[in-house]
């Protein structure tokens, strides 16, 4: 978010960077509102699928666009593509990967552990976000902008795969039934091991979420 104006400026889109950032903020707000309406209707896992997939598509388009731009290919006829990609990213992030990790964390952990685990992951998310914001300009100059977006694309793909194979559907389920599902993935998984699986789930979700602060 901190570099959204710079990204619009680098893309040389048909709109001003300031207007682009306002549009992004508007889409982000609308996405958060839609998330509250869809999370209980469609479930957590489908929203995480669509969210990480949409983010990956957005990063892929941006990576291809900036790669062509860096090779001096005339992209003047496609200056609307970065706008679509950034707005797609913002809308899909705010409907899934942004708000859902906290929801899943509260539903996966035991009440006695939820506050402690959430504290750990808030601190982890803060550190990861700081590193992304701090290192983004460095990586931009070291490996070029399109490779930065391709790297973020890989993170989104990992999040998409993890959402399918690791994240359980918690909609309308009690903590006991969720933990039973986690335990059923192994042969008589112990309670402590189920807690470790739950922590891995939220770690992956938080890592995907930290990509927002590019």
TrEMBL record:
The keyword Membrane applies. The chain crosses the membrane at residues 22-40, 47-68, 80-101, 113-136, 148-167. Keywords: Membrane, Transmembrane, Transmembrane helix. Pfam families: Sugar_tr. Gene3D superfamilies: MFS general substrate transporter like domains. InterPro entries: MFS_dom (IPR020846), MFS_sugar_transport-like (IPR005828), MFS_trans_sf (IPR036259), MFS_Trehalose_Transporter (IPR050549). It is a multi-pass membrane protein. This is Major facilitator superfamily (MFS) profile domain-containing protein.
């Amino acid at each position: 978010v901190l570099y959204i104006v710079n990204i619009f400026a680098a893309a040389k889109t048909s709109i001003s960077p300031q207007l682009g950032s306002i549009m992004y903020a508007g889409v982000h707000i609308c996405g958060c509102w839609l998330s509250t309406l869809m999370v209980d209707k469609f479930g957590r896992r489908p929203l995480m699928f669509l969210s990480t997939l949409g983010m990956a598509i957005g990063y892929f388009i941006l990576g291809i666009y900036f790669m062509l731009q860096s090779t001096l290919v005339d992209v003047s006829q496609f200056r609307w593509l970065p706008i679509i990609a950034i707005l797609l990213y913002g809308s899909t992030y705010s409907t899934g990967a942004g708000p859902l990790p906290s929801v899943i964390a509260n539903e996966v952990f035991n009440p006695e552990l939820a506050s402690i685990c959430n504290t750990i992951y808030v601190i982890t998310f803060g550190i990861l976000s700081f590193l992304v914001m701090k290192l983004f300009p460095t990586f931009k100059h070291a490996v070029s902008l399109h490779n930065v977006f391709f790297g973020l694309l890989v993170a989104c793909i990992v999040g998409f795969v993890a959402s399918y194979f690791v994240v359980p559907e918690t909609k309308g389920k009690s903590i006991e039934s969720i933990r039973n599902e986690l335990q059923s993935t192994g042969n008589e998984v112990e309670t402590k091991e189920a807690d470790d699986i739950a922590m891995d789930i939220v770690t992956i979700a938080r890592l995907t979420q930290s990509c927002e602060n590019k």
